[in-house]
Amino acid sequence: MFGTGLHASTRDSLKALSYAHSQGEIKKVVDLGTGTGVLALASALLGAQQVLAVDLKSPLCEDSRLRNVQLNNLQNRIEVREGRAEDYADVPADLMLANIHWDVFEVTAFERRIRRHPWIVLSGLMRTHARDLEST
Fold first, then answer.
1. Neighbours of 10 (CB within 10 A)
2. Is 66 exposed, middle or buried (0-12, 13-18, 19+ CB in 10 A)?
3. How far is CA 37 from the centre of its chain?
4. In a 10 Å sphere around its CB, with 0-12 CB exposed, 13-18 middle and 19+ buried, how is residue 19 labelled?
5. What's the pTM value of the predicted model, to 2 decimals?
6. Which pLDDT belongs to residue 124?
7. If 6 and its partner were Cys, which of 1, 33, 62, 68 is the partner (CB 3.0–4.6 Å)?
């Protein structure tokens, strides 16, 4: 069930996000491939002061993420933008969340650019792709 926080990859990302926040202050977060904004919301609720939530145009997800931000009264901490992950990989942040497709990694220098962030939580990759990233 994508978009609800119940999908296994979302639950695992929430655990990683919680761990990162428990290790020190995380003030600024960029959430690439935010979908309905579950991870962006969680990060703000865990203490991030600024969260940039980015995703491609998807009317269903767009409406849901904006509504979720409003329902949680986090408009002053979460900025929602439409765009490609590649265009936001260099935004300075304490934590980078990236739920993106392998082709973004494959085609661009995206991986090298996001590795500059102190904390990175990746999801949405196949296990073989994750192993490829670990070995580089």
1. 22
2. middle
3. 8
4. exposed
5. 0.82
6. 66
7. 1
Residue 121, pLDDT score: 83
pLDDT, position 3:
47
Between CA 117 and CA 128, with CA 123 as vertex, the angle to 5 degrees is: 110
The closest of 54, 29, 3, 52 to 121, measured between CA atoms, is 29
Tokens 């960029």 — which residue?
A: 30
For the chain, residues with pLDDT lower than 70 are: 1-8, 59-62, 101, 104-115, 124-136
* pLDDT of the residue at 1: 37
Sheet with 28-32, edge to edge strand ranges = 78-82, 50-55, 28-32, 95-99, 119-123
* Among 98, 77, 73, 76, residue whose Cα is nearest residue 87: 98
pLDDT for res 136: 56
Residue/partner pairs of 18-23 with CB below 8 Å, 24 or more apart: 18/42, 18/46, 20/95, 20/119, 20/121, 21/46, 21/47, 21/48
Q: What is the pLDDT of residue 61?
A: 65
